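Dear colleagues,

For the upcoming journal club I promised to circulate an example of a predicted protein-ligand complex. I picked one with heme C because it came up in last month's discussion. The inputs are reproduced below in full, followed by the predicted structure.
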Amino acid sequence: MKRILLTAIALFISYPLIIFSCSKIPHFELSRFIQPEICGGCHDEIYEQWKTSMHNLSHVDELYRVAAFHYLKGLTDPDEIKEAEHCVVCHAPIGYFSGFPKKVSQERDNASKIAEIVKKGVQCDFCHSATGAYAIYNNQMKLDPGYGEANPGIKRGPFKDSHSDFHKSEFSEFHTSSEICGVCHDVRHVAFGTKLETTYEEWSKSPYNAKDPKERVTCQGCHMYHRPGVPATGSTERPKNPGVAAIGGPPREHIFTHYFVGGNVAIPLRHGDALKAKMAEERLKHAARISIIDSQLHNRKIGIIIENIGAGHYLPTGLTDIRQMWLEVVVKDIKGKIIFSSGVADSKGYLPTDTVIFNTVFGDGKGKAVSNIAKAREILKDHRIPPKGKVEEFFVLPNFLPETIAVHARLLYRSASQKLVDELLGEGKLRLPIVVMAEVKKDISVKKQ
Ligand code: HEC
Ligand code: HEC
Ligand code: HEC
Ligand code: HEC
Ligand code: HEC
């Protein structure tokens, strides 16, 4: 009897823990989070950098919103619906952690109920209240926010000797590691477990995740060294950025920048930030190198080598089912007549079907390709360039080549296929800019081969 009673008591005590460990993310009152503008009052430069970054825009980003609402349409499978509803955990994290919106459908149907702070996306007080993570994917962040401006609590960061009259400060190793980024930059299907985005995993298996601190380059080591004119990639210098972290703060050897620029040119431009669009171009232009293989022309084959020299993850990374990175190859005779081409976009910006694209294709579990990630039960294709790795692609030229050919190859990037953007937003609404990541030109004497 005593044992039964003890078991009952033990169960009673552990019950909330069981519930807690299943739902993982505890609830936080919205009023506990502080508006980024308040932080910006003292951290003025950091605030200006973060403003209209993709983190600031994660919730209002038109492409995100239209994709999220589109994926939800017509689903009936409960597991698929669960995934399609889950986007807000990363794209509106303060909303998700404080209870609204918990689901994409709430975001769609009750837009007026969404608090202003939530719309500001991935922001200061979310990242700087983090203490660790339950798991390094799907934004399972452990948080310890303060209680609003009256009692802002502890802000965690890279300094061991930091003092502010406004908030307590604490050194946090987590903030100096790639794991804090990986918490959101690894995305798994909530029901099927399919790996939808693997930027952190790619980095963790790459040569950049070296044990030797001199060789090691974290996400921050590239992305939070980036500033105008300093792309800070694996193929460039990554000089320190001396300055102050706050108005009146002490001089510091390095202030981590907060532009958070990747490859997105279109969305910052739409929000009037030409600087970040230019920085994204600069970053993309220091990511890859391409060269020509002309040793197999006797077989009418021309090869292109694509090397990932600048990114700490695969090229491309992140949303690789949607991003387009492709090879455009044009071969002419000496008079300038085109004798072969591949990957040349038409006047609408659409690509020929045989274009060499580096991307991921998801499947429905039975081998059929799906474009809605909510239905992604398997990975059918994953053809991309590993960090510090390379890929070779061959093209077969037509018979009867002239004596000399001029080869022009370009590695091109845009955030999505133009066809998809036209389907989602309507034709002519958004023309995605195409960035030339790398190019090579060569005149080759065919006879010599
Ligand atoms: C996506 C998460 C994230 C967001 C959003 C973010 N930070 Fe940071 N911040 C970091 C990380 C990570 C570091 C430390 C990097 C390291 O040590 O490798 C940092 C460093 C800092 C520092 C120390 C000084 C420096 O820059 O090195 C301050 C101050 C700071 N952030 C303030 C802010 C403010 C203010 C905002 C909002 C305008 C903000 N942060 C938004 C992640 C974030
Ligand atoms: C009244 C001015 C003021 C406000 C408002 C303010 N800070 Fe600070 N903060 C400072 C000063 C000063 C420092 C010290 C800078 C240094 O040590 O170089 C600092 C340091 C930090 C650090 C570094 C902590 C460490 O140990 O590495 C972080 C992170 C930070 N603040 C985040 C925030 C966030 C997030 C907000 C908004 C919720 C905020 N701050 C609001 C003045 C302020
Ligand atoms: C709370 C979740 C979260 C955390 C933590 C986070 N990110 Fe992000 N990040 C996002 C989301 C969501 C987007 C995409 C927003 C969009 O495109 O609408 C994004 C976008 C980016 C982009 C821009 C990508 C592009 O295509 O231009 C970069 C770069 C980036 N993050 C780097 C980092 C780094 C570095 C860290 C760690 C210091 C980090 N992120 C931590 C959620 C997060
Ligand atoms: C060695 C430098 C380097 C490191 C380390 C690095 N990146 Fe990048 N990152 C780049 C370059 C260069 C690009 C631009 C090419 C591209 O878009 O992939 C980029 C692009 C991105 C993008 C945009 C991808 C796209 O095409 O939509 C995201 C998101 C991103 N990085 C996140 C991260 C995260 C998270 C980490 C750590 C897990 C990280 N990066 C580590 C250099 C780096
Ligand atoms: C675990 C975190 C996480 C979840 C959940 C998540 N995303 Fe994202 N999302 C990201 C990150 C990180 C990026 C940036 C990656 C990159 O730039 O390649 C991103 C980028 C995007 C973009 C690109 C926006 C642009 O302007 O290029 C779209 C669209 C998007 N997500 C849609 C969705 C939809 C729809 C869902 C839900 C079905 C979803 N995301 C769920 C983290 C997440």
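Two points we might discuss: Residues 413 and 435 are 5 Å apart (CA to CA). The pocket of heme C (ligand 2) is lined by residues 34, 38-39, 41-43, 124-125, 128, 152, 155, 157-159, 162-164, 166-167, 169-171, 245-246, 248-250, 252 (CB under 6 Å).

See you all on Thursday,
B. R.
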